[in-house]
Design a protein that fits this description.
- The structure holds 2 protein chains of 2 kinds.
- Chain A contains no helices and 11 strands.
- Chain A is mainly beta.
- In chain A, strands 2, 4, 5, 6, 9, 10 and 11 form a 7-stranded mixed β-sheet that branches. Chain A has a 4-stranded antiparallel β-sheet with strand order 1-3-8-7, with no helix packed on it.
- Chain A is globular, with a radius of gyration of 13 Å.
- Chain A starts with a strand and ends with a strand.
- In chain B, a hairpin with a 4-residue loop joins strand 9 and strand 10.
- In chain B, 41% of the residues are buried.
- In chain B, strands 2, 4, 5, 6, 9, 10 and 11 form a 7-stranded mixed β-sheet that branches. A 4-stranded antiparallel β-sheet of chain B has the order 1-3-8-7, with no helix packed on it.
- The chains are: A mainly beta, B mainly beta.
- Chains A and B meet through strand 4, strand 5, strand 9 and strand 10 of A and strand 5, strand 9 and strand 10 of B.
Chain lengths: 109, 120
């Protein structure tokens, strides 16, 4: 049973920078896992932010960026805004199937 | 504009089956895949499976193998997800999402979600 692990919760001040990570129970996350990141606010459908490690969708704000960091997928928010408070999920590709992480609850305080 | 519109909420008894639809518009349906994802109340997103809308090939999560069937009707630009042998733990919001981005067709546009409640 493959497990994808994220920080359960993080807190950041407005205007600050925060990095969320995404680890795989199978080992280091590489570009071959095509890490994706999604934002979800209460009562809403998820919204795609990042695909294939670092690519942004046309609607993704510039302050969001994706990378690989220390064997994990990473999502960095720079210049955090109050509206960035949400749950963030990563999604990893395992040769035909996909697995979501447990989500990170980001609080902007 | 790309839109995915899902069918309405369902109330089912344990042991029954449910079939949720996802009607796509604003793009060529057969050029992309459709993912199905669910979210139990207060829980994480869970990937269920996907279908290549062009050739009908499917892949399912091992967690649902044998209970989930994903199909599509190209003439109606609609994908379907059927889950059988329902139990209370299947109570969740079920989402479809277009798989359109990048080499491995990651989800980009999402439907509004369909609440399926399993209760006797």
């Amino acid at each position: 049973q493959t497990v994808v692990t994220q920080e359960p919760s993080l807190t950041v001040s407005p205007g600050g920078t925060v990095t969320l990570t995404c680890a795989s129970s199978t080992g280091a996350v590489t570009s071959g896992f095509y890490p994706n990141w999604f934002q979800q606010k209460p009562g809403q459908a998820p919204r795609a932010l990042i695909y294939s490690t670092s690519n942004k969708h046309s609607w993704t704000p510039a302050r969001f960026s994706g990378s690989l960091l220390g064997g994990k997928g990473a999502l960095t928010l720079s210049g955090v805004q109050p509206e960035d408070e949400a749950e963030y999920y990563c999604l990893l590709y395992y040769g035909g199937a996909w697995v979501f992480g447990g989500g990170t609850k980001l609080t902007v305080l | 504009q790309v839109q995915l519109v899902q069918s309405g909420a369902e109330l089912k008894k344990p042991g029954a089956s449910v079939k949720v639809s996802c009607k796509a518009s604003g793009y060529t349906f057969t050029t992309y895949t459709i993912h199905w994802v669910r979210q139990a109340p207060g829980q994480r997103l869970e990937w269920m499976g996907w279908i290549n809308a062009g050739n009908g090939n499917t892949k399912y999560s091992q967690n649902f193998q044998g209970r989930v069937t994903i199909t599509r009707d190209t003439s109606a630009s609609t994908a379907y997800m059927e889950l059988s042998s329902l139990r209370s733990e299947d109570t969740a919001v079920y989402y479809c999402a277009r798989g359109g981005v990048g080499v491995v067709s990651a989800p980009d546009y999402w439907g509004q979600g369909t609440l399926v409640t399993v209760s006797s």
